[in-house]
Write a structure and sequence with these properties.
Layout lengths: L1 E3 L2 E4 L7 E3 L4 E3 L11 E4 L6 E5 L1 E2 L4 E2 L7 E8 L11 E6 L4 E7 L6 E2 L5 E6 H6 L4 E5 L12 E6 L12 E10 L5 E3 L10 H11 L4 E2 L5 E4 L3 E3 L8 E6 L2 E6 L13 E4 L7 E6 L2 E6 L3 E3 L7 E5 L2 E3 L4 E5 L4 E5 L2 E3 L4 E4 L7 E3 L8 E5 L13 E3 L6 E5 L6 E5 L2 E3 L12 E3 L5 E7 L2 E2 L6 E3 L4 E6 L2 E8 L10 E6 L10 E2 L1 E5 L2 E5 L10 E7 L6 E4 L1 E4 L2 E5 L10 E13 L5 E6 L5 E9 L6 E10 L5 E6 L5
């Protein structure tokens, strides 16, 4: 079941209020109408001519309406128009003094083809308010036309040849309008065992004479008006399914005049009361003309499943949100589309190709607090015409982000560039980007990060986990764990000689070719001044210098025989008894460490541990503490 949300201004069932370059003749011959039971026929010739009405057939009166931000639709049967460039099809509107026919199409831009050789065409009045384009003044002047007080509507044309004889050569059948930023067509209905289909929607269009959806052949469907699936207010459950179809979304008249940049939206919507389901697979959606906005992020749609589909030429897209019964977009191609906002649902296996976004923008925008690990696996990205990023991360992302199996092609090989692979908006803190099994075309995994944030890219990391149980075998929270290099054979420095100076609470370490990165941990030992000793997270200044924060005011420089070793883990276990770290290792790395828990309610003995971090699979150490009472 579908519904038309537009308003009829004249249904062409009667000829009240019609005038122009011929008479408007009521015609009910077979094939002469698409809507209702009549149309109005006239004969126009190879000069700019028009037919128009001042009559609202629903209110049965004249009208005066503000259409300055509305889109108008008409059904027309005329196969003799000239080309769009010659003013072949014109939408006529007037204010009682000025009457203008705006060129919207022609024999090369016929709108939507419908049964009985009718076509549906449209005019976004807001577009001609801003930029009139080509037009014909039938009376008065377009420059004086008041689109906020329209009193007349109709059809204008210039035919390819002069009319001969007395036979009518065009048929007008229904004029409608709707405010921009609205949805002209609502698709709802269906049940779980028998969902609504495009066959049903196209059938509703023919039955009701709408001219918004056409089914020219087989599984091909043309959408001509903003469309929504579902209901935003409680009404009834709604289910929709499609498989193996081709959908064409026309943001113009099949060429010719386009609608405004944000006036061709599509969405899947739900509400908190009704059950809503939208499932499409293997559907190819091609947008021409004005790019359609697609909104799939309603949290009130229970089931929203998109799999194996393709989208081409769309504008901005809000991807499905996490939650519901089942919401995802998998193994789907987005080609030449605008920015896609990732809203937490799985997009694994999707390809984002040659995106149509501005320079320094992201093909995908991710601004969720959760790690996208498992939500963006095996995706492919290629750069479009602008120097844009593959993924732009907003300022709400977590401190650790993991992507798996993604491929990047065509992006800049330089960091801090408009076309770098990744962009980070956050301006504070530190973020680790873990890339597992990801590939590129030789440009590298480049990063454009904002001032104030430190982004560390870790390629193919492995995870080291220490799990601690209490004496009874339960998970032990807040156990202090230190795990550091056991020798110098791995990737970390081991007991290497360093010198330290300090000022204003910052210790600066000179450590020749240390091989460390910002946010790594070092363990300092041997300083006479105790404030310098212990495990610290560092900020790297150069290949032979880093710094860390200290408390107190020790003398500078530090004295003693000072050594530094790299550590993998330093901190407290969580509520599950776990503490972990992920990073890349070029070789297996031997580690040693200690676990302590001396706070109430029970004192426990320190536990020493050793292990070998495999640079392919990582390391897990399980510890069971023993009572010290």
């Amino acid at each position: 079941m579908s519904s038309d949300n537009r308003t009829i201004i004249n249904d062409c069932e009667q000829n009240d209020g019609w005038s122009g370059d011929d008479s408007a003749n009521v015609n009910n011959d077979t094939g002469s109408f698409y809507q209702g039971s009549n149309s109005l026929s006239s004969q126009l010739s190879n000069a700019d001519e028009q037919m128009s009405t001042t009559h609202d057939s629903v209110a049965v009166s004249t009208f005066s309406l503000d259409w300055s931000d509305s889109t108008l639709y008409m059904l027309i049967k005329d196969n003799q128009q000239s080309a769009f460039s010659a003013g072949g099809t014109q939408f006529v509107i007037g204010d009682g003094t000025d009457l203008t026919g705006y060129d919207i199409g022609g024999d090369d831009a016929v709108g939507v083809p419908l049964p009985s050789y009718f076509n549906s065409v449209k005019l976004d009045v807001s577009v001609v308010v801003a930029t009139p384009g080509s037009f014909t003044d039938f009376s008065g002047s377009e420059s004086l036309l008041d689109q906020t007080a329209i009193t007349e509507i109709g059809y204008g044309t210039i035919h390819q040849a002069k009319a001969l004889g007395a036979s009518d050569n065009l048929w007008m059948d229904c004029f409608r309008y709707i405010a921009n930023d609205s949805y002209a067509l609502t698709v709802n209905g269906g049940t779980s065992p028998t969902p609504e289909t495009m066959t049903d929607v196209a059938g509703d269009d023919v039955t009701n004479g709408w001219g918004m959806v056409s089914n020219p052949v087989g599984d091909q469907y043309i959408f001509f008006a903003p469309t929504e699936w579902g209901e935003s207010a409680a009404s009834a459950d709604h289910y929709f399914e499609a498989d193996g179809e081709q959908w064409f979304w026309l943001g113009d008249n099949g060429g010719g005049h386009t609608v405004g940049a944000t006036h061709f939206p599509f969405r899947v919507i739900g509400n908190a009361t009704d059950t809503g389901s939208f499932v499409i697979s293997n559907v190819s959606i091609v947008n021409v003309g004005t790019r359609a906005e697609l909104l799939l992020d309603s949290a009130d749609v229970d089931t929203l499943e998109i799999q194996g589909c393709s989208f081409s030429g769309l504008g901005t897209i809000e991807a499905p949100s996490a939650g519901g019964t089942s919401r995802f977009c998998l193994d789907t191609i987005f080609s030449d589309c605008g920015r896609i906002d990732h809203n937490g649902a799985d997009m694994n296996g999707c390809s984002i190709l040659t995106s149509n976004v501005a320079a320094d923008e992201g093909a995908i925008f991710y601004d969720e607090t959760a790690d996208p690990d498992g939500e963006m696996d095996d995706m492919s990205f290629s750069q479009g015409a602008s120097a844009h990023h593959a993924i732009r991360f907003g300022d709400n992302v977590p401190a650790s982000i993991t992507l798996r199996g993604c491929d990047f092609s065509g992006f800049s090989s330089s960091d801090d560039n408009d076309g770098s692979v990744f962009r980070f908006d956050d301006t504070t803190g530190s973020i680790t980007l873990n890339l597992v099994g990801c590939t590129h075309d030789g440009s590298g995994f480049t990063v454009d990060d904002a001032a104030g944030v430190t982004v560390t890219v870790v390629i193919d990391p492995v995870t080291t986990i220490v799990h601690v149980d209490d004496p009874a075998g339960g998970d032990l929270e807040n156990a202090r764990v230190l795990l550091e290099a056991e020798d110098g054979a791995g990737d970390f420095p081991f007991e290497e000689s360093v010198t330290i100076t300090s000022a204003a609470g910052t210790a600066t370490v000179t450590h020749t070719t240390h091989g460390l990165d910002t946010n790594d941990i070092v363990v300092i030992r041997g300083a006479v001044e105790p404030e310098y000793n212990g495990p610290f997270q560092i900020t790297v200044n150069t290949v032979s210098e880093y710094e860390y924060t200290i408390t107190g005011g020790p003398s500078s420089p530090a004295t003693g025989t000072i050594i530094s070793s790299g550590a993998i883990i330093s901190g407290l276990t969580d509520v599950n008894g776990d503490i972990s770290a992920s990073r890349t290792f070029s070789t297996d790395t031997a580690v040693k460490g200690v676990v302590r828990k001396s706070s109430a309610p029970e004192r426990l003995k320190s536990f020493s541990m050793t292990g070998l971090i495999d640079n392919v699979i990582g390391l897990t150490i399980n510890v069971r503490m023993v009572s010290d009472e």
